[in-house]
Specification:
The complex is a heterodimer of chains A (387) and B (101). By secondary structure, chain A is an alpha/beta fold. Helix content of chain A is 37%, strand content 18%. Chain A starts with 9 loop residues before the first helix and ends in a 24-residue tail after the last helix. Classes of the chains: A alpha/beta (387), B alpha+beta (101). Chains A and B meet through helix 1, helix 2, helix 7, helix 8 and helix 10 of A and strand 1, strand 4, strand 5, helix 1 and helix 2 of B.
Chain lengths: 387, 101
């Protein structure tokens, strides 16, 4: 496919890897922010073709992973109610809350449906006026325009039976929290390309300046990521700390002004709890008062729910780049994608789940996968059935 | 989750006053909301996330990385290097990446 295949070109990747090798003189720790980037790194073994002095650590940018367990429990409570059609992106369905996952809610009679787009959920509300259609609106800034469009459109069409359970998170406060955390090791960021396609690059400039960290907004294909690493190490070696845009085919400095305006019309900034991390001030979106009739938390009056996370799991430290999945005693043993203990194992884009899917839990047992080789896609796991 | 796929716009239309379109993803066509790329033309590529076009793909910018690599290659050819320094890592990476494409 155009704009995908050429960015997976082996010769281009090899030239970039060689240029990185020639540039680096010292050890550097670089964090990729987005879960999609983590997936590319592990799938193509990008970290293993880099010089050993360049360490990639994996950031908090998987919204499925960081959705707080309380919010998952609220989703389950709403989805279990009669007369509700609960719509979600597919990757939220098997994320465990305190009492199982959404697939179990469905197996017990809940009307849970996977939608490709939030706009499909709006159409479902129009087609089912006797039902309450609730959409689980999770995501980073990338998903905020489609989710805001769904709310705006339902409001405009007078669909009073459409609501959203909002658990939006924001990148800049999360990377600021990482930089402020004790023991921070991150010296530079590969910035989240699709988040910046929406929001632009300017909000990263004060972070780069204040914390003296290069931030290179980077795409998601192997050639993109290697070029992002090259630009980052060039800045690090030169003692620079600025925002650069590797993903300029999709990202303009000002972002998408129409999307930003719609987001501001529908959402306002709020404090948000992140699974594995805790509450980060001003790190999320919630619905504005004008759209309260579409707020599922208000309509269904779901109470605060007490939850307990595993005491063994180190996902909070993995999300901040302090530890790698291998450092956890439960990784690949008691904690697997079928039985996740924490944030970074619950979604395919979480660092622990990506490591597991591409066989890295076997490496410590002497079954090292072919270094640098592209791994096959992970098998789909059927919940409650034979693999 | 923040997956964005480039696709080619093949038709546009309005639905509830919102600009929509049919977008071709390598042979698979999907309905996509184009409201936030209002000046998109038929045949242009857009970056689509959950049925919503986030931005247009800029063709000139898309070529930059390959122009950069082309310049790197020209510079390499001007340098006198020992074969062992330059060939080994490239061949190794080539082997590793061939499987990916």
């Amino acid at each position: 496919m155009k704009y995908l295949d050429e960015y997976r070109d082996t010769a281009a990747a090899a030239r970039l890897a060689e240029a990185i090798k020639r540039t680096v003189t010292r050890p550097w720790v670089i964090m990729e922010v987005c879960g999609g980037q983590t997936h590319t790194i592990v799938k193509y073994g990008i970290d293993e073709i880099l010089p050993s002095s360049v360490e990639l650590v994996h950031g908090p940018g998987c919204p499925v992973c960081v959705t707080a367990m309380e919010m998952i429990d609220r989703a389950h409570t709403i989805a279990s109610k009669p007369g509700v059609i609960f719509c979600s992106f597919g990757d939220m369905l098997r994320v465990p809350g305190s009492r199982g996952d959404l697939l179990q809610v469905k197996s017990q009679g809940g009307d849970v449906r996977i939608v490709y787009s939030p706009l499909d959920a709006v159409n479902l509300a129009a087609a089912n006026p006797e039902k309450q259609v609730v959409f689980f609106a999770i995501g980073f800034e990338t998903t905020a325009p489609p989710n805001a469009m769904a709310v705006w459109l339902a409001h405009k069409r007078g669909l009073k039976n459409f609501s959203v359970l909002v658990s939006h998170v924001l990148v800049p406060p999360s990377i600021t929290a990482i930089l402020q955390s004790p023991g921070n090791r991150v010296q530079a960021f590969l910035g989240p390309g699709h988040v910046c396609a929406v929001m632009g690059t300017t909000e990263y400039e004060p972070i780069a300046r204040r914390y003296c960290v290069p931030i290179v907004i980077t795409g998601f294909e192997p050639v993109d990521m290697l070029e992002g690493v090259l630009w980052t190490v060039r800045q690090l070696e030169a003692g620079e700390a600025k925002v650069e845009n590797q993903y300029s085919r999709a990202v303009r400095p000002e972002g998408n002004p129409a999307s930003i305006k719609l987001i501001e019309d529908v959402f306002e900034i709020c404090d948000r709890k992140w699974r594995g991390v805790g509450i980060i001030p001003k790190s999320g979106f919630k619905l504005r008062y004008e759209y309260r009739d579409h707020d599922a938390e208000r309509l269904f009056e779901v109470d605060d729910i007490e939850t307990a996370e595993s005491t063994v799991c180190i996902s909070g430290q993995v999300l901040r780049g302090l530890k790698k999945p291998h450092d956890c005693p439960a990784f690949g043993k008691t904690c697997t994608p079928q039985t996740p203990l924490g944030a970074t194992m619950v979604s395919a884009e979480g660092a622990c789940a990506a490591y597991y899917a591409y066989g890295r839990h076997l490496e410590s047992r002497g079954h090292r996968a072919g270094v640098g080789a592209a791994r096959p896609e992970p098998e789909l796991v059927q919940i409650g059935g034979d693999r | 989750m923040c997956l964005g796929i480039p696709g080619k716009v093949i038709r546009t239309f309005h639905e509830h006053d919102v600009l929509m379109g049919k977008v071709d993803f390598g042979g698979v066509c999907k309905q996509v909301c184009l409201e936030h790329v209002p000046d998109v033309a038929i045949g242009q590529y857009v970056l689509v996330h959950v049925g919503f076009a986030l931005s247009k793909i800029d063709e000139d910018e898309a070529r930059l990385v390959f122009e950069f690599l082309g310049k790197m290659k020209q510079l390499d050819e001007l340098e006198v290097m020992s074969p062992g320094d330059s060939i080994a890592p490239s061949s190794r990476a080539d082997e590793q990446w061939r499987a990916a494409t």
